[in-house]
């Protein structure tokens, strides 16, 4: 895939020269385990189980009509949980699941756009503004920890 080649090209020499492939894949696994656990606890389960409670805790005003917001929150949690499960599986052999790193980069980019739009319009609580930084870092880390081919 050309997109994957672009991501590898930017840091290929650094990791092959200094870190080495096996060590880099260990870092890839750690990134997946830590990231998936963080996202599971802070977003995946809370959104899937109780989206309005999660929203209230981070500062959103809860609408009078909650059905649509609950549906959308649970849907986002329902989409997040399978990605988290695949991240746990990918931590075993990151190279075989390298597509997940591209997916995480793209998710991060689109989340920066969504949260940036809310920031510009001033329609979201402060914690959502901070998520712009979180998702930007997520994309950068996914690019940096992209697994190398096995030796």
DSSP E strands, number? 0
Number of helices: 7
Q: Over the alpha carbons, how many angstroms does the gyration radius reach?
A: 17 Å
Q: Helicity range of the residues?
A: over 70%
Proportion of residues in extended strands: under 5%
What is the residue-averaged pLDDT? Answer: 88
Given helix and strand content, the structural type is: mainly alpha
Measure the end-to-end span: 20 Å
Give the topology.
Layout: H1 2-9, H2 12-19, H3 21-49, H4 51-57, H5 67-90, H6 99-121, H7 126-144
What tags apply to this protein structure?
151 residues; mainly alpha
Commentary on this structure:
This protein has 151 residues and is mostly helical. The protein is built from seven helices and no strands. The longest helix is centred in the N-terminal third of the chain and has 29 residues, at 21-49. The chain is elongated and about 55 Å long.
Sum this structure up briefly.
The protein is an all-alpha fold and 151 residues long. Helices cover 78% and strands 0% of the residues. It folds into 2 domains: 20-95, no CATH class; 98-144.
